Amino acid sequence: MKKLLKNGTIVTGDKVVQADLLIEDEKIVGIGNYDEADEIYDVKGMYVMPGGIDPHTHMELQQSPLYRSADDFYTGTVAAAVGGTTTILDHIAFGPEGANLHYSIDIYRQLAKKSVVDYGFHGVIQYVDDDILKELDEIVRNEGITSFKAYSTYGYAMTDIDFYRILKQMKSSGGLLTIHCENDLITKHLIEKAMEAGHTDVKYFPATRPNEAEAESVDTLLNLSKLVDVPVYIVHTSAGESVERIKLSKEMGQEVYSETCTQYLMLTDDVYSKDGAKEGVKYLMQPPLRKKKDQDVLWKALKDGDVATVGTDHCPFIYATEKSKGIENFTNSPGGAPGVEERIKILFSEGVQKDKIDLNTFVNVVSTNSAKIFGMYPEKGSLEIGTDADIMVIDPSKNEKISVDTQHSVCDYNTYEGLEVNCGIHLVFSRGTLVAQDGEFKGTREYGKFIHRKNRNF
């Protein structure tokens, strides 16, 4: 079947052209001037772009025996699709102590089968020994999971030697290490001191995970990356100081990639005092929200190319039964928030419509760069002839208000409640199939396919 997007403005990471786009079955087959197709969509005045890629989600995350993230791979990818995202890369959760790398990967392969859009995984490293490194090599080379995540904080925090050994293996295998950077000893100490002082209200939470704790860890990983001569990918960069270290490394010729998330571009740490802890605890996440000055640095870094991608770290928990447990003591709340549906609308409205970033940069940070960094380009993140017809059509004339009442996530609150956006996601195609239209899901359960990724081609 042929589908025609007629009269639109086609935008990629490096081009803006007036043209029609022709789809046949799952592929893009033409860009030019066409009149005939089985289905014709008039998209005059709208932008035709590669479907969004969210490089950072947590569907069905078992954060602890008590807490599991609210969205499964069905509801979470429905929200993604309606929001213009046609591919997610999900961060796999920790397994039990001593679990090998395949333990959680095998579980997630089954969980993700209900996805409505295409998906891939970042593996997770809990500990390092010779067997783990051998297994890592096998997975990166043969199983289509070419990126793994490790942490410098939490219960499975890596030591510097652990990171060094992983990076050496990644260099040999051709994989990419993604890292959650926060200094574990400092954050633990600051949390202990806060509890001793009776500072259990969530308004004290940001001070326990300060900018410097993130930036110090970023600096350490950049130095180790330089020592081994292999790239790294810093997830959810939130602090201006971290961006400055990343920028300096890039200026010195180092290959490093950085991600930020919608919440760090839009929200500040004053929300932790919003209507007391009852509201503030909704925004508890690691790293915490920062200040306006950090937002300014992040927006400039997106414009300048020092931050390559914008993800969501979509990891919602139900407020009524889970997040609210942190009202009296913030350490009792699971960390994480929703956002996979809102990312593209917010980035377009706040970024493009307010001249913080241009159209090409927008496409790069919400789609193309992730495809290149994580080995999916040009099949994903492009509009090249012969590639998957993963497409979103944005209507810049629309005005919408974000609300929990209209979202598709099963979470019982919305991080951006009441925010007005100056755009709408008109059409979303996943491999040529219409999966969303004007806020309504049109796809089917189990349509999504696992993406067997290659090594990066940035």
Quick structural summary:
This protein is of the alpha/beta class and 458 residues long. It contains 13 helices and 19 strands.
Write the layout of secondary structure elements.
Elements: E1 2-11, E2 16-24, E3 27-32, E4 39-42, E5 47-50, E6 52-57, H1 73-82, E7 85-91, H2 101-111, E8 118-124, H3 130-142, E9 147-151, H4 160-173, E10 176-180, H5 184-196, H6 205-208, H7 211-228, E11 232-234, H8 240-251, E12 256-261, H9 262-266, H10 277-280, H11 292-304, E13 309-311, H12 343-352, H13 359-373, E14 391-395, E15 400-401, E16 420-421, E17 424-430, E18 433-437, E19 440-441
Parallel strand pairs: 1-4, 1-5, 6-7, 7-8, 8-9, 9-10, 10-11, 11-12, 12-13
Antiparallel strand pairs: 1-2, 2-3, 5-14, 14-17, 15-16, 17-18, 18-19
Helix pairs in contact: 3-4, 4-7, 7-8, 8-11
